[in-house]
């Protein structure tokens, strides 16, 4: 006789089959999300699935237009072009979070955002493979002068030359910045037969047979190809100028910048190329970049005259794969922050999370309290919580701001209002939300 199938056992711990309760801060259709710079459809779909209102633009916004649009949204999604300065953030009265749908966060005043209780997320590695592959392509294109040959053919010129065209096998690649992109590139370059060295401010374990160099100057002086993979920081601004190009890079070397435009001084690059000290360069990023597609690249006429210079319009991370992954990654982080207060992986905030509240915990509320990091705050808060049962609580700080998350049980609807009101009126309050 067939045996009846066993009842599935109730699993425990983090595999619990109890359903997490969906916490709703307010009617989700009131959550307004503004997405700029052609953010991927995966993000638009994810936000719409939550029931949020979503407005999208293909370009970056600036000036009055940005101030007008940002003033009543709860979340803004941007890429590398939209500048969220303190002045812009001051106008964003309802803003709770910013999503940078890219790696870089230099376009946002992170400190001002934190002080206003606005949590910033990015996508730290989803486009690293795309950038690394682009660099491999550029190295070969430069070594074979393909840009110039192709331009000549477009002008009907047949120019078959082998002088100063090289294989990349056995050449030295110098990587400045050995993070997600630099290290990925290191592996790809070695598999093409290149010898890899890198420079980084941190001591990092090299992948494959790559080796770390102690100084930037040493790296520059031994590399046939120098490629930059550093963030835009005070320390990296103008990092590569005449001293580095003419003084330290080898004669005949190539320079690649797919990092940030401000890292390389354009006049020094032009001098390096025009003097013949550099054999070529690939530049994807510029100190000033147009906000939208079209004939707007008018700042750098000197570059237009340089030979063996590949110029691209900041497309390092622009692949279908990277953009769709970034869309999912950043929209997921933002949704968790909106719905549950989770700030894990935030770039400017203490990283806080608590296990989910289950559906049957019907009278449990979650208090999210973003406050100034000053003495005596927890005492005040715990007095407010004193008549309730604090089920779990976690708090952490980062610089001037602190973030407390607490789940309180047996709270009636009137009490929710009272708790919200009392916490919002504490002297350290920056932003308080109560989810239920
Ligand atoms: O990921 C980054 O930081 C980039 O530079 C890519 O920027 P983008 O999203 O293409 O504007």
TrEMBL record:
Q: InterPro entries from the entry?
A: ACT-like_dom_sf, D-iso_2-hydroxyacid_DH_PdxB, D-isomer_2_OHA_DH_cat_dom, D-isomer_DH_CS, D-isomer_DH_CS1, D-isomer_DH_NAD-bd, NAD(P)-bd_dom_sf
The Gene Ontology terms for molecular function here are: (S)-2-hydroxyglutarate dehydrogenase activity; NAD binding; phosphoglycerate dehydrogenase activity
Q: Which domain of life is it from?
A: Eukaryota
Q: Which residues form the D-isomer specific 2-hydroxyacid dehydrogenase NAD-binding domain?
A: 138-316
Query: Kinase: is it a keyword of this entry?
Result: no
A GO BP entry: L-serine biosynthetic process
The D-isomer specific 2-hydroxyacid dehydrogenase catalytic domain extends over 33-348
Sorted keywords for this record are: NAD, Oxidoreductase
Q: In which pathway does it act?
A: Amino-acid biosynthesis
Q: Respond yes or no to whether keyword NAD is given for this record.
A: yes
Q: Which family does it belong to?
A: Belongs to the D-isomer specific 2-hydroxyacid dehydrogenase family.
* Protein name, entry field: Phosphoglycerate dehydrogenase
Its source organism is Umbelopsis ramanniana AG
């Amino acid at each position: 006789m067939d045996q009846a199938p066993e009842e599935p056992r109730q699993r425990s711990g983090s595999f619990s089959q109890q359903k997490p309760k969906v916490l709703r801060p307010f009617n989700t259709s009131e959550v307004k999300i503004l997405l700029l710079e052609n953010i991927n459809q995966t993000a638009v779909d994810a936000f719409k699935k939550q029931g949020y209102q979503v407005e999208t633009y293909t370009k970056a916004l600036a000036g009055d237009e940005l101030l007008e649009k940002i003033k009543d949204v709860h979340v803004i999604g941007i890429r590398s072009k939209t500048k969220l300065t303190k002045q812009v953030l001051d106008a964003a009265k309802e803003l709770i979070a910013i999503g940078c749908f890219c790696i870089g966060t230099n376009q946002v005043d992170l400190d001002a955002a934190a002080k206003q209780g606005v949590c910033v997320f990015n996508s730290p590695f989803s486009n690293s493979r795309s950038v690394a592959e682009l660099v491999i392509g550029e190295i070969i294109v430069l070594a074979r002068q393909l840009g110039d040959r192709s331009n000549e053919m477009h002008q009907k010129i047949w120019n078959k030359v082998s002088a100063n065209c090289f294989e990349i096998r056995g050449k030295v690649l110098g990587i400045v910045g050995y993070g997600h992109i630099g290290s990925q590139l290191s592996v790809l370059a070695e598999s093409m037969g290149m010898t890899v060295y890198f420079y980084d401010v941190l001591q990092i374990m090299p992948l494959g047979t790559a080796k770390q160099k102690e100084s930037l100057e040493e790296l520059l002086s031994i590399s046939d190809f120098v490629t930059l993979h550093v963030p835009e920081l005070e320390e990296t601004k103008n990092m590569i100028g005449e001293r580095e190009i003419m003084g330290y890079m080898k004669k005949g070397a190539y320079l690649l910048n797919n990092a940030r435009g401000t890292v390389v001084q354009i006049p020094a690059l032009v001098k390096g190329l025009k003097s013949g000290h550099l054999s070529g360069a690939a530049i994807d990023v510029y100190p000033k970049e147009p906000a939208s597609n079209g004939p707007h690249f008018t700042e750098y006429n000197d570059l237009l005259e340089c030979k063996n210079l590949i110029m691209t319009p900041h497309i390092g991370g622009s692949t279908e794969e990277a953009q769709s992954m970034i869309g999912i990654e950043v929209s997921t982080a933002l949704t968790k922050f909106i719905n549950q207060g989770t700030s894990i992986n935030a770039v400017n905030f203490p990283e806080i999370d608590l296990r989910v509240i289950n559906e049957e915990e019907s009278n449990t509320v979650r208090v999210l309290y973003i406050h100034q990091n000053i003495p005596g705050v927890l005492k005040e808060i715990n007095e407010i919580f004193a008549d309730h049962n604090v089920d779990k609580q976690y708090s952490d700080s980062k610089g001037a701001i602190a973030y407390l998350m607490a789940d309180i049980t047996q709270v009636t609807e009137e009490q929710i209002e009272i708790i919200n009101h009392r916490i919002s009126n504490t002297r350290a309050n920056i932003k308080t939300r109560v989810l239920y």
